[in-house]
Design a protein that fits this description.
- By secondary structure, the protein is mainly beta.
- Helix content is 11%, strand content 37%.
- The chain has a six-stranded mixed sheet, with helices on one face. A six-stranded mixed sheet has the order 19-20-21-22-26-23, covered by helices on one side.
- The longest helix has 23 residues, at 410-432.
Length: 645
């Protein structure tokens, strides 16, 4: 399937005709049609092009290029143009064309009205391809993109994949060894007085079957690709090579995080990308994410999750993890929100005195009057099994995305991102006084300003390069950015439009009883193509984000796991359960009391017991999610229970 041709070309081709001879119209050279700017100087005119070579033929389009003797020796003009019509001949044919010059999405074309095509009967060798280099495409932003000079022309290159194959099976490329990253600021041309990012103009894309060459869906980042093809501007400043032929060598294998040391704890974060029961192939997704958490993330002790549908999905994932690796004994924690995608935690069973709570759930967005936090930050407070115990707070974030930050929704999006960041900064400032704090999750923000809102540095209290909404001074002392513990080449968790970028972050305050031993991203998602999604046999592309893992070394001895684990406290009950249904609690040590709370922390019911087992019934309650806290002589364990009428 040829994907380059926009719908407008297909529509134009319905009216195309191929008569035996062309009409009498002014004759021009192709470089005169192309000109040196973004648009043709002959836009809208009916013109004739004579004696040019067909270099490529696709579905409902073909490309012609001038013979070498027709070049104008101007490096700024292209010598080829796309024809929006059907051609049944072969590359190498010489043709005369009459048609109207048009511009569609940045691409100069010859189309109807008045399109006619004549094969002269002559056959010539294809013009030699223009070699792409580290200076073509240029890494410097210019108002007229450097590739305008080769629009439609045959090109050749040896390049490296800067990201994986997209859902359209295109792969982003760069010439040279250095990976291309997102940089601070608004994409060029930007706005006066604000940081500007050049947009990485050195990136271009390969469509492997753009001219019906064999398709390839499994390009991963770092793949080495050699190709010859036709250069097309598929959208403004989006350049794609339609391959005549290509070769490639696969990219490097996905690197897991290192193995944690005996005196370390690990805290991780993973955006699960629509972990919803109603999603097609959900069973494969459970298996794939479980494999990724086990093999690539090394089973973090505490795992903050984003984009989870409900407690059911998170609990199911815990089950699949134990099937994947019997050592993966996790409890699931999740509180409901007003959106389908929620925050949650998977916590290994050997932690005690665990509490979770939503922060800012009722805060109002002053711009619209709605809720400020559609996914309220989720706070986990837990005691680590050390002697003496060390308390740790983990704040899980999933902030408003960058979608709509320009265009008709810009005011809404920029204000919401700014107000969310201020709200979270105030939360963090309050939590710092309560002790050890780790803030992590999908920030939907870079480690620097995007030019409109500097979400990251508002939250961290670190210096900003400036933004349309300047950060306020709230967080003091500032948090430590654990991204900086990585080499510059590893500071990314996501690939968007071909550019590597960090959206998933981990921050820490001044820890007591714990020492940070660095952070790593678990590779296997961001650098791997979507074509892996339906394979449960490997962990690749379990999500579109790479998860992260923070390594914390305990300053105190870690207690023997068996002495603090709580798997011998078990709740046997249907979940969901109806009011009046029976439940059974069993423990390896005598139970002391059992308490049932609603999500606001209100005590709903309590039971006293002094034996290792208790059997009871759920009270008559409004339908919803409740927290059941079980106290035994060994400690406290919390269960989430859904009760229905």
């Amino acid at each position: 399937m040829v994907k380059f041709l926009p719908p407008f070309l297909a529509a134009l081709c319905l009216f195309g005709m191929i008569p035996n001879k062309i009409s009498s119209q002014p004759a021009f050279a192709i470089h005169e049609v192309q000109g040196t700017g973004n648009e043709s100087p002959l836009l809208g005119q009916l013109i004739t092009l004579q004696g040019n070579i067909v270099t490529a033929r696709g579905d409902n389009f073909f490309v012609i290029q001038s013979p070498g003797n027709g070049y104008d020796n101007n490096d700024l003009t292209s010598e080829a143009v796309v024809i929006a019509g059907t051609y049944f001949g072969s590359p190498g044919d010489v043709v005369d064309i009459t048609g109207t010059v048009q511009e569609e999405n940045g691409l100069t074309i010859i189309a109807n009205p008045g399109l006619s095509i004549t094969n002269t009967g002559e056959d010539l060798p294809l013009p030699p391809p223009v070699p792409l280099t580290e200076s073509l495409p240029s890494p410097t932003y210019t108002a007229v993109h450097s590739l305008e000079r080769v629009e439609g022309m045959r090109v050749s290159f040896e390049a490296t994949a800067n990201g994986p194959s997209s859902s359209f099976e295109d792969v982003p490329l760069r010439i040279g060894e250095s990976r291309v990253f997102r940089e601070p600021g608004i994409e060029a041309p930007g706005l006066p007085g604000l940081p500007v990012w050049d947009g990485n103009p050195e990136l271009f894309w390969l469509d492997p079957n753009g001219l019906n060459a064999p398709n390839q869906r499994f390009f991963s980042t770092g793949s080495l690709i050699g190709a010859t093809g036709v250069m097309i501007e598929a959208a403004p400043r989006f350049w794609r090579v339609l391959a005549e032929s290509y070769t490639f060598l696969p990219g490097p294998e996905a690197a897991p995080v290192r193995t944690k040391a005996a005196n370390e704890f690990t805290v991780g974060s993973l955006n699960a990308l629509f972990l919803l029961e109603e999603e097609e192939n959900i069973e494969v997704k459970y298996q794939k994410i479980a494999r990724y958490i086990d093999q690539q993330m090394g089973l973090p002790d505490i795992l903050a999750m984003q984009e989870v549908g409900s407690f059911t999905e998170l609990n199911n994932l815990a089950f699949y993890l134990e099937q994947q690796n019997p050592q993966a004994r996790y409890d699931a924690y999740l509180l409901p929100t007003n959106l389908d995608l929620k925050l949650g935690y998977l916590v290994k069973e050997h932690f005690t005195n665990l509490q979770i709570s939503q922060l800012g759930a009722d805060e109002t967005f002053t711009f619209s009057g709605g809720l400020l936090h559609d996914r309220p930050p989720l706070l986990l407070q837990v005691e680590l099994p050390t002697e003496p115990p060390v308390t740790l707070q983990v704040l899980n974030l999933h902030l408003r995305s960058l979608i709509g930050i320009e265009g008709s929704t810009a005011g809404f999006v920029r204000n919401k991102r700014h107000q969310q960041a201020i709200s979270i900064a105030n939360m963090i400032q309050g939590l710092q006084s309560a002790g050890n704090l780790v803030v992590l999750g999908d920030f939907n923000a870079f480690q620097f300003t995007d030019g409109y809102v500097d979400v990251f540095n508002q939250i961290t209290g670190l210096p900003s390069l400036g933004a349309q909404f300047p950060p306020l001074n709230i967080v003091d002392p500032p948090l430590s950015n654990q991204l900086l513990s990585l080499p510059a080449s590893e500071r990314y968790s996501y690939v968007f439009d071909g550019s590597a970028q960090a959206l998933d972050h981990c921050l820490t305050n001044g820890l007591s009883g714990l020492t940070v031993n660095g952070m790593q991203y678990a590779r296997g998602n961001a650098d791997f193509p979507e074509a892996h999604e339906l394979s449960s046999a490997n962990p690749f592309r379990a999500s579109d984000h790479d998860g992260l893992v923070l390594f914390l070394e305990s300053d105190f001895p870690i207690a023997a796991q068996a002495a603090v684990r709580q798997p011998d406290i078990r709740l046997l009950a249907a979940n969901p359960a109806h009011a009046g249904a029976r439940f059974l609690i069993e423990s390896g040590t005598p139970l002391e009391n059992i308490s049932l709370f609603n999500l606001t922390g209100q005590l709903i019911a309590a039971w006293q017991t002094n034996g290792p087992q208790y059997e009871g019934t759920w009270p008559d309650l409004p339908s919803g999610l409740y927290l059941l806290k079980v106290h035994s002589q060994a400690g406290i364990k919390t269960f989430q229970q859904i009760v229905t009428k």
